[in-house]
Design brief:
The protein has about 375 residues and is of the alpha/beta class. It folds into two domains: about 40-160 and about 335-350, Rossmann fold (3-Layer(aba) Sandwich), CATH 3.40.50; about 165-330 and about 360-380, 2-Layer Sandwich (Dihydrodipicolinate Reductase, domain 2), CATH 3.30.360.10. It has helices spanning about 10-15, 15-30, 50-60, 75-85, 95-100, 115-125, 140-155, 165-180, 205-210, 215-225, 330-345, 350-370; strands at about 40-45, 65-70, 90, 105-110, 130-135, 155-160, 185-190, 240-250, 260-265, 270-280, 290, 295-300, 305-310, 315-320, 375-380. A nine-stranded mixed beta sheet has the order 14-13-12-11-7-10-9-8-15. A six-stranded parallel beta sheet has the order 3-2-1-4-5-6, with helices on both faces. It is globular.
């Protein structure tokens, strides 16, 4: 028997933390034990944004996960990994040696974007679970190949969309799902400013994939969270979409990423979504503007604070303020879910199919802009 006093109404049962406790409680009383410890190898320990250290810290906080090895071509980065993670850590300069070592069950690929697919592939072929940094891949065809290979080998493929749990999208989802602004018909996300995009290889298109493959991939993933997937009768909606875009290079010629990108998606229900990113925008714009049939949401920043404007039956509009979300260590949600999936068989949130969606949108909009035509896609999630 499993009893909980955390709540007994719809609000409690809809809460993901409540569901998590209930499922694990049921597993415990049914004698369903976890599968042990997952040994993890980091592939890449580069200094840019200290992502190797960041993943190590997230792994250390996750029950059932342990860091077993680091692989990097640069001996100085391996030395940095040992200094930060301990001398017990196994280190490799060749991915093939890491694969053959038998020391890891899961590889976390932390390399520049264009190398995600070729680095991940041999680990999947060897029957090793894989998490890639975002974006999943640069091309949809690469994502399809990795998804098919993971399915064939019976292993997990996932993407580190840690910002799935950011305050801005958490707040937006709560507002939208409450029904206060009605049915969505327009979503705009703007990341604009004026300045040199100096982020090493991340600003070189031949390595990064382009401007939208960095934060744009995160924000497209958030847009897809807001898109209804079922109608009131349970029928699948918004699976097909028509894309267009405008990608410009005008100012920052010492880097090869675009200076301005507007990616436009129209879903089959008529709902539209637009992502605008610019390094030559001198006027501010809200981060989010979301329009519904009864009202709208305007969110200026990343902390989740928003203004919700709703039209009454008399036509008058009233505005209310939604406070910022005070989130501590919000990114633990990604690794926690991955561990729950691998150790306890719980559903994986960021599947390969889900992570492919942003790549379909970005690559499709770029093709549409380059060829001055509409591109039609069918989302795979």
């Amino acid at each position: 028997m499993c009893y909980t006093a955390l709540g007994h109404d719809k609000r409690a049962f809809a809460n993901p933390d409540f569901q998590d406790q209930l499922l694990k409680g049921l597993r415990y009383v049914c004698g369903m034990k976890d599968k042990g410890t997952i040994r993890i190898g980091l592939v890449g320990y580069g200094p840019l944004f200290n992502m190797g250290k960041h993943h190590s810290e997230q792994i250390a906080k996750t029950h059932g996960f342990t860091l077993a090895a680091v692989c990097d071509k640069d001996p100085r980065r391996l030395e940095a990994a040992k200094q930060e993670q301990g001398d017990h850590l196994a280190t490799f300069t060749d991915t093939g040696e890491l694969i053959r070592s038998g020391l890891i069950d899961l590889a976390v690929v932390i390399v520049p974007h264009v190398y995600h697919a070729p680095v991940a592939k041999p680990f999947l072929e060897a029957g090793i679970h894989v998490i890639t940094e975002k974006p999943f891949t640069v091309h949809v065809s690469e994502a399809d190949e990795l998804i098919a290979l993971a399915r064939q080998k019976g292993v997990m493929i996932s993407v580190y969309h840690n910002r799935h749990w950011d305050p801005d999208i958490t707040s937006l989802r709560q507002i939208v799902e409450s029904g206060v602004i009605g049915d969505l018909y327009s979503i705009e996300c703007n990341m604009v400013g004026y300045g040199y995009p100096g982020q090493a290889w991340r600003s070189q298109k031949e390595i990064s994939g382009g401007m939208l493959y960095d934060m744009g991939a995160h924000q497209f993933e958030k847009i897809l969270q807001l898109i209804p997937q079922r109608d009131g009768r349970g029928n699948r909606v918004n699976k097909k979409a028509t894309l267009y875009g405008n990608f410009l290079k005008r100012v920052w010629h010492s880097v090869s990423n675009e200076d301005f990108c507007r990616a436009y998606v129209r879903f089959d229900s008529g709902l539209e979504a637009q992502l605008l990113q610019s390094n030559m925008h001198t006027s501010p714009r809200p981060l989010w503007t979301v329009q519904g049939t009864k009202g709208s949401v305007v969110m200026d920043g990343w902390d989740g604070a928003a203004t919700v404007s709703v039209a009454g039956e008399d036509g008058r509009v009233t505005a209310s303020q939604v406070p910022a979300i005070q989130a501590k260590d919000r990114w633990v949600g990604y690794y926690k879910n991955a561990a729950d999936h691998l150790l306890a068989g719980l559903p994986l949130i960021i599947t390969g199919e889900w992570a492919k969606g942003p790549i379909q949108c970005i690559e499709g909009c770029e093709i549409a802009a380059r060829e001055n035509r509409l591109v039609e896609i069918e989302l795979g999630y």
